[in-house]
Queue: 3 jobs
Job 1
Amino acid sequence: MDLLVTYDVETTTPAGARRLRKVAKICEGYGHRVQKSVFEVVCRDADKVKLVAAIEAVIDPTRDSVRIYRLPAMALDDVEHLGRPRGIDPRGPFVI
Amino acid sequence: MTELLNTLYIQRPGTSLHLDGDTLRAFHPDDEPKTPPKRVPLVRLDHLVAFGGVNVSQELQLRCAADGRSVTYLTGNGRFLMRTVGPATGNPLLRQAQHRAADDHQQRVSISKAMIAGKIHNSRQVLLRTARDSSGFRQTALRASADLIAERLNLLRDATTIDEVFGVEGITARDYFAAMPHLVTRSKEWKVAGRNKRPPTDPVNCLLSFLYGMLRGAVHGALEQVGLDPYIGLLHGVRSGKPALALDLMEEFRPLLVDRLVFTLLNRRELSDKDFDHLPNGAYQLTDDGRKKVFTAWQKSRQRAWPHAYLRRDVEGALLPLVQARLLARHLRGDLAAYQPWTVA
């Protein structure tokens, strides 16, 4: 399934900055960063459950907000984009 | 829908790979210091293929082993060096059944016949599909080859020993590869004559050998995943260091998954003369750039869905080896009366 993950983590305190880094780290393990706090994720059903659980364990529900949009199938293959291009095709082959 | 996991190919010498949280980070000393590091989420990968001169950190290797993700190391030319995997899993009862089948001549012959029948059927499909898109002499020649190959199926039906099955396979392969010049447009430019290997002496054979290697890796991995021993073969004899069962199971995939891709790549001019190095010993070899193009095409073609005549549904190319390995396991365990090879309708 294709997901779009966006987050707002309050960084006025050092603890908040730590939470922000943790959330970013978790998202990096599942998808590709396309903007500062926006990730495109292609994953299986089980991975989504793990992703949600990992984020829930880290954030402070009274201060932070994470939104996970479930997109229609293959929606990430058809994205209109202006400006700096994203580096990687979400479903493309990986060759380094 | 199941999302297909990807294979990561790392071919740039000097690259080092590190574990960074749940991602893989690739680093190359020649990269600009300001460029952001290349990261790949590990959950999207089921396999790593590292070519010569690539350094994989131990943390990453251990993590891959723990997750059941194998790492294959190849030389710069694509020759297999080693493969690291985690602990052996799978079903000992299935492995015992496989070994018993390997000792049972009748069962060996019947499974081998099914696999070769699948290969012959799929070879015919390659010829017929190309014939449909061509005209004149080429079309006549391709149709004639397809008819010739169809007759071999009768020979196969009457085969009673492994040697006879191998004989039919050999004759069919000869007939099929004799039609190769008609499958590649501009075949003179590509020096298409027939099949040759060790070393391949024209670009077409170079591509075939390279992609057969990729297919072998995929089939080998699928067998291990299902819990079968890739080294105990049924058609191909057991020999030390020879993944005989992987070679057996590959047969039915060769024509459609590899040959067709090779002919398409050349006919659509996605590869040119510049993508090959001509070595002094007469061998042809892919350049780094050419290899990258072939990987991309291979990975794309693995996402393509193919009809499966026995299961009556479409299956992605990447999953076909796994599906067939499961069918073979079910037959060996006695749940299925016969092994059904993969054929397109």
Job 2
Amino acid sequence: MNKTSSLARAGQYLALLGYLVFLVFPFLWLISTAFKPARELGSLHPTWIPQNPTLDNFRQAFDEQPLLQAAANSLIAACCAAVISISIATPMAYVMARHRSRLSTAATGWVVISQAFPFVLVIIPLFLVLKNLRLINTLSGLVLVYVVWSLPFALWMLAGYVRAVPIELEEAAAVDGAGRLRTLVSVTGPLLAPGIAATALFAFITAWNEFFFALVLLKTPEKQTLPVVLTHFLGAEGVADLGPLAAAAFLATLPSLVIFALIQRRITGGMLAGAVKS
Amino acid sequence: MTSASAERRAGKRTDRGAWFLVLPALIPILVLSVGPLLYGIALAFTDSQAGRTAPTQWIGTLNFRDLLKDTLFWDSFGIGLIWAVGVTVPQFLLGLGLALLLNEKLRLRWLARALAIVPWAMPEVVVGIMWRLVYNPDAGILNETIRDLGLGDGRDWLTGLGTALPAVIIVGIWAGMPQTTVTLLAGLQNTPHELHEAAALDGAGAWRRFWTVTWPAVKPIALAISALNFIWNFNAFALVYVLTNGGPGGRTRLPMLFAYEEAFRYGQFGYAAAMGCVMVAVISVLLAVYLVNRIRGGEAR
């Protein structure tokens, strides 16, 4: 097993290095651009490392676009979507995992099929309905869409976490005379808590990053979320002010990066369980 | 009270309890997801338009007949297929290679795993913006590197007729590869190590060990993630909207971009819904492959 030849090892390291470069260089370039003064950005021979690093781009980004308002909108939409979708998904995921019935089969099938919707087919009718309800250009309308949009994945992941809790524990509690609700709250609940937290954070990130629905549903700049406001930096003809653009883009990524770093392992596990097991 | 009736009562209570638990999610799903989907399909058979004062008319298959003759749509559809294959296949091959690599005991693998998070967690809009900075003809690092290496002056990648689609495909691969890799890696780590060692003791080479031990173990995951990747890629929007907005001359106009413009720029709701239906039809084929595979996988367990 350990007889990998040194030549093969060298090849492996070369491949790994190539991947790391491909993976990291655009991100480093984004960071580098964000900290460059205008003079360096205009230079015909750009350098990797800013010669005179500055925070001007960040200041200018906040001056040019309502970034704080946009971040607040994104935060509200993502928090509401995550909390609501988890509170309604957890009970259903429990049933999907524990009861073999036509309902749970149908639910599982729907979860898979909903992954395949071209969103345009859903957003046109939603747009018409939300318009009639006067919910276009409101965060409430967007949250409504986000909740339903993040439900399939939440159900998928949560059902996987429920299956990971041994059913014997629940049976033992029932034998000890605990009622159904009591068993759920005091036995299953605590064991599920980390999975629920991971799923909620994942729902938060998907909503924080989402672009298409927000683009269609939010019309005025003061209502728009961060990804939509970021595209305003690109300008009508695609002529962009590179420094502030990079600075704002970099800031918009930080929350998801931090959260994702915390829960990445759990997400992979949850997805894997959902994708292969029935 | 007989135990049978007690059981029956317990069963009934469970069922009623189950419904109670399911309803909070089921109602929003039916109202805001299944409903709009069916409504969307129905819209494809109407002349629904934005801001129209006359009532919407049922026009049968007229939208689909128009769509059949719409060469711009079929161009876009072809571009969508090229893009989806061009992104999904490398995502899978490179992802599998990398997953195998990260499954070895290499020194930098913790770094590669930690950094794989970056593209996965980034908003697609930011990924698009970031690569626009890289591809920027004057201030971008790509052309500067090309100049430094003495390979010429570089070019304007995203607006060149021949380079735009390959350029966005590379971004698509970059954005989706980490998720594929990490998923495959998790699959690899679920395969028992002893099998490898036994095969190695039997004198099987690396290539044989891969085909007889590794591949059968990761195959269900590999097929699942590839089918989903293809579907997600075919439905892609944000990345290309930010990178090229479909340009130059429609060379990167993915079907979703086309349908979005048709619906929300020109207000042709019925026609755009018909486009959505055609996209669903194509995706259903792949979805069927995925579901059959999933059910078979379930039986094997």
Job 3
Amino acid sequence: MTSVLDTPRTRLSGPEPSGQGPRRRLVVIGNGMAGARAVEEILARGGAGQFTITMFGDEPYGNYNRIMLSHVLSGEESDADIFLNSLSWYQDKGITLHAGVRVDRIDRFTKHVFSNDGRVTPYDILIIATGSRSHMPPMDGLYTPAGSVKPGVFAFRTIDDTRKMVAYAQHEHHRRAVVIGGGLLGLEAAYGLRSHGINVDVVHSAGHLMSAQMGPDGGAVLRRSVEALGIGVLTGSRTTAVLGSDRVTGISLRGGTDIPCDMVVVAAGIRPNVDLAVLSGLPVERAIVVDDRLRVQDEDDIYAVGECVQHRGEVYGLVAPLWEQAVVLANHVTGTDTSAMYLGSRTATKLKVAGVEVASMGLHGPELDTDEHIVFSEPSRGVFKSIVVRDNKMVGATLLGDSRKVAYLTEAYDRGLPLPEERIGLMFDFGTPDGDAGVGELSDDAQVCNCNGVSKKTLVDAVQGGCATVAGAMEATRAGKGCGSCKLLVRQVVEWAADGAVEEDPVANYYVPAIPLDKQALMAEIRKRGLRSVSAVFQALAPGGEDARSKMGLASLLKTMLAERYMDERDARFINDRVHGNIQRDGTFSVVPQMKGGVTSVQQLRRIADVAEKHNVPLIKLTGGQRIDLLGIRKEDLPQVWADLDMPSGYAYGKSFRTVKTCVGKDFCRYGTGDSTKLGIEIESRFQGIEAPGKLKLAVSGCPRNCAESLVKDVGVVAVEGGRWEIYVGGAAGAHIRKGDLLATVDDPEQVKVLAGRFMQYYREQANWLERTYAFVPRVGIEHLRGVIVDDAQGIAAQLDAAMQASVDSYVDPWLDRDDPQTPGQFRTSLPLTVLPQVPVR
Amino acid sequence: MSANHIPAGGKTFVLGPVEQIPLGEGRAFAVDGGQVAVFRLRDGSLRALPAVCPHRGGPLADGTIDLAVVVCPLHQHAFDLATGCSTTGADNLRPYAVSMDRQQNLVLQLPV
Ligand SMILES: Cc1cc2nc3c(=O)[nH]c(=O)nc-3n(C[C@H](O)[C@H](O)[C@H](O)COP(=O)(O)OP(=O)(O)OC[C@H]3O[C@@H](n4cnc5c(N)ncnc54)[C@H](O)[C@@H]3O)c2cc1C
Ligand code: SF4
Ligand code: FES
């Protein structure tokens, strides 16, 4: 029992043994990167036994990795993948999370917080981690008369901001954007929008890009790299107004120039969220003032952490300092180490901004007459290096486009290491005592991955524990799994730790892991040696012999290359291709009767219904590709189900041509200008079943309203006025979202079939295994594809057409296996005897 | 009791002709109330493991194999065919002894 005389202050002085006495109430305001990390650190110190924890977060989500929003914007990452702590994490840890609830006021005398859902929550210890928000610099026309931000104007701070930007950027009428602010965030925003095919200009008020991180010379080199991405750059320009009455039509610059655009992204700096603190009478200067314990100045029970904090006059806007703060805070709050002190962070920024490696620390240029300034600049390669030396210590560095020496420089900067006589050794490897000096000289506790707080020692331990590949060590430690900017350093550490014995990650260049050849070299060898089966390829070309993980890719490649001359070995196929169905999580399979172009008939529907009834099909589901999926079929029942259906099956599995989605088209639709259904059926009939490096999903729409979603398909066709057809390639609407690129506009459906087939054949021959068209098309570039496929620039068009025709001609209906199994026990059950069915039945 | 449970006692089971299993593939057999996946490698040798993947219950006999491992079809965890040890960090399996008699029948030995 605690006596009434026990004030919270005295209880704070030592940790209570867990499970004894009432737990104190810990309340956290702000559920962002700092707030959630502080709680994780507290839990790691036994905090669950000491506290009942309540968190408030303005955003209606668990905690996510804010720095990954740039990747979400560019489509490299899906928003689902960036969550660090899902809502169930809070539940598991016994934390009460009020997501989507904002705290409006703190009463520090009665120790309560008041939130906008009317709740009053008492606390013993309070942590404020409210972060920052985007700063909207004053300009005319930013707001509508009603007071909201004008439609088309965006901030770039939260997951909601990012989702809205993506949706807006993908709208077909939105072609042009202006990003206000040429710092880290602005460039990331510009890069992200560019990958949605939007034309982007960056307007920056300072004289050069990223002026907070580097000097004018570096800025000039960066500008070239950014412009090479197709992004326009205007420096020394200030935006004075947003134009347009109900939505954005452009911006005005000081001096009178107007730039027309459909969207404006404001990335002109951040402002700490301090309203709450000010209103509650806490000390605020530029941000909430804290001491070396992260305690709010003159408060006993209130801590603050993250971007909302001012410590010794500094406000930090990167995550690395937040992690250091969270550790000190947790040590104090839990009483684990009451001598812990936060003395500030030296910020060294290591980032990949708009695809360019950027590292920056300390001074950008010389300040005293005695400062040495060493500069190397190679603008054509986008490389720039600048180092400032004072009293034989490094006091600043900027690296652009080549961060090989970044580890060594960071360490030299952080610890004031003595520098080599020959200064050039700071910039290039040949000057240092040996090539590995950079990493070798790093201290054990040097943090390699800032996002996940992985030290050099942790990585080295992982390598010594047997993870001798970069990917393996990353997997084991989570290093490099955050923003990814440290991947190069991770690689260097792993290579150093493995002492040259680092195993290459073969998947990187090889077509399949077991054969040390890229796709084109592998194809050449196969041709040269006349290999016709997967086992023959292993025998001839795989140093380690047969390899399970390489089989499927090889089978696909051989089939593509050889058509009917391919010698099929069933064991080289994945189970889906052995039994012609898609394996489900419970080991059953699915059957998808063929419905070309999504068209069916009364007879077919009746037959499908009868079969579903006869076989007690647990789930009947319409697929995204306009077909009917019969799920939960046992392997041994497949042949009978196919026989009872007595209709061709559809491709719903495997890396192959799958389906053509169509809209109603001109026969029925009021708007239709082309017969999309007919063309869809013809395309599906022609290309059914052909293998490819990844699945191929197609669509045909009868007019630009695009009801079949043609713009986000591997190949999408759209009828336009005048009986013409547009062909788009490289679209996707799955985990990745991408609008396809316009390949060609042609006059008739026959040409559509020719060009679509030629594109698919080129993709089959050139793409890496499992590389979908949405990655392939941007990799080789639409201009290149147009050259090869439409203009026959390489003179291989006839060859591509013939190869595709051979594949089409060699098509055999695989479902005929039902009457004539290809291998003994092809459809024999592999299931455990007891556990069917696990797939939920609705 | 899991579907894999096979009572101890060192029993021998004859599972029929080896041709039931195509080269380079696996097949599942119901043995003594449990299930065993028997694999016939491309070099002709035989291996046997429990039929149920310890990860999420995937059907191992449907996996893809080479001379060393079987890769589960559901989430691609791999298991050493000789030792049953997972090479991808899943739980390990306990292998069974399997051989062929003179009539080319599969002979499975359950552990004592
Ligand atoms: C697009 C983008 C890219 C970035 N890239 C990098 C990078 O590459 N490297 C790097 O180091 N940093 C990067 N940053 C900066 C980094 O994200 C921030 O430094 C970090 O998120 C700050 O953490 P925080 O917890 O202090 O604030 P936040 O993460 O902003 O969290 C604060 C949370 O508190 C909530 N909140 C605010 N007020 C209240 C209230 N009154 N009641 C309840 N909840 C409230 C907010 O809604 C928010 O969810 C990037 C930032 C952005 C936006
Ligand atoms: S895409 Fe055009 S033709 Fe096809 S259904 Fe929609 S509106 Fe009609
Ligand atoms: S069930 Fe076998 S890998 Fe997941």
